[in-house]
Amino acid sequence: MELIDGKAVAAALKQRMAERVAAMERKPYLVAILVGHDGASETYVGHKERACREIGFRSTVLRFEEDITEEALLGEIERLNADPEVDGFIVQMPLPKHISEQKVIEAIDPRKDVDGFHPVNVGRMILGLPAYVSATPEGICELLRYYKIPTAGRHCVVVGRSNIVGRPMANLLSDKEFNCTVTLCHSRTENLREVCAGADILVAALGKAEFVTADMVKPGAVVIDVGITRVPSDKTKNGWKLLGDVKFDEVAPKCSYITPVPGGVGPMTIVSLMKNTLLAAEGAIYGK
Ligand code: NDP
Q: Are the beta carbons of 118 and 108 closer than 8 angstroms?
């Protein structure tokens, strides 16, 4: 079994990006909008800010209180769309219930949508056109490339069909770069255990801690664990720890490759956001 070290791959890719940025006269500029004080969102935005600093990007976090109106938030997005200094921006999800996430996503100029959530970017990705690809699936693709994991003709099972992880992941793996035969599963899938046990590559993205057990994994499979669930722990200073969707200790010995949680997919998600920001600054997707 080989552990897929997302932290190390992320560090190597960030180093490469930093070298490219060092040669740029105008440094890429990423803005993050953060609404409210959700602990996990604060942590993610903090990681993104740190990655910007490491690579040499400029970055700003715009913080708003939980009670900001939808109209006011859409106004901020309009302002960022029009600001020529801003290469790309993200709105950290989830948003408070009174704000429509879909409206927010669609308000972002696709040319600055470095999260790759706008329908224009999703559509372009599906058509195989240049696009900002959603950061988590793109990060997983980078891991498969980095470790040169054979994918062509392999049966890949993706569990979870969200717009930001499972669905784009299934699409990317089925395209002509990876050439997998893909099964996309969700909460209504019948015989999920058997379906998973037939996978050469299993991507668990359902958000249920330690859901995937050893009996659901084929010997020699590649297992990519996307899930992140915070569970209470009396062994950590902050009182919680992170669990993936895979019961790591019993599954790992059966695999050819597996990603840990933390330190697997998470760091790669951030790197892919950075990559999209660099592409935006270079005008690589939509021109200058
Ligand atoms: P969503 O809640 O949006 O989607 C979960 C999906 O899993 C849904 O399609 C749902 O099915 C499916 N599902 C839920 N329960 C089951 C079940 N028992 N059996 C089969 N399918 C099930 O989650 P996200 O895609 O946003 O995130 C998934 C996980 O990945 C979360 O833990 C999240 O924190 C993590 N994540 C990690 C990232 C990283 O960087 N590592 C980035 C983004 C997310 P249905 O559609 O039928 O409801």
A: yes
